[in-house]
Amino acid sequence: MIRAAVAAASVLLVLFITVPLVALYAHVAPARFAATIVSPPALAALRVSLVTTTASLALTLALGTPLAYALARGRFPGRTLVDAVVDLPIVVPPAVAGLALLFVFGTFGLFGPALGALHLRIAFTTLAVVLAQLFVGAPFYVRAARAGFAAVDPALEEASATLGMGPLRTFARVTVPLALPALAGGAVLAWARALGEFGATIMFAGNLQGVTQTLPLAVYLGLESGELDLAAALAAVLVTIALAVVVAARVLERRAA
What we know:
The protein is mainly alpha-helical. The chain has twelve helices and no strands. The chain has helices spanning about 1-25, 30-35, 40-75, 80-90, 95-105, 110-115, 125-150, 155-160, 165-195, 200-205, 215-225, 230-255. The chain is globular, with a radius of gyration of 21 Å.
């Protein structure tokens, strides 16, 4: 009886997740999909997404790797607080994140006067998309990288030091290669989260075609304007990418383990 109940509940949940995704793919015929996905709005959204997610991932790696290593190895005052703050964007609603970024980098935000004096504008530009993606995606990389660095045996790093390697060479030639599966898995998750970002982007960057309109925003605009084929085609692209990311993350997790 218990096994039957468990099986029934499991099947219902799996179907609840699977059926809508299958319906999404079934909505657009292959011929219409091919024509829609190469339309100017679709290509513009794809270009913006690829450019911004690549830039946000580069910033995530450059800034998140040292932070993850410090959290994994360092012992400093406020470490627990920093650890919690880094995880905070994961649970903060994306719209709230976008509003917070607007209050910092917007025209009337905290840095608004300084940016205005330099004749710089961040809000509602492509750079705003990158910053929004960085805000929501970086914590996923830092969490995975922190776990990867923590799993590296410090004795190996100490042995490297006794062989004459400095801290940077030890980090690059010993620590990073050993933690690489976890780092790669975190990078994949961070990139996927950036690609799927919607709320923070529309609040902080707007929805300007060819400038700030990413794939999720194009899906929303297609639905709002009645272009269901465009919305469904782009949504199918996002789901396919998400599936590939999940598979890649699972493979990398197994290698890390």
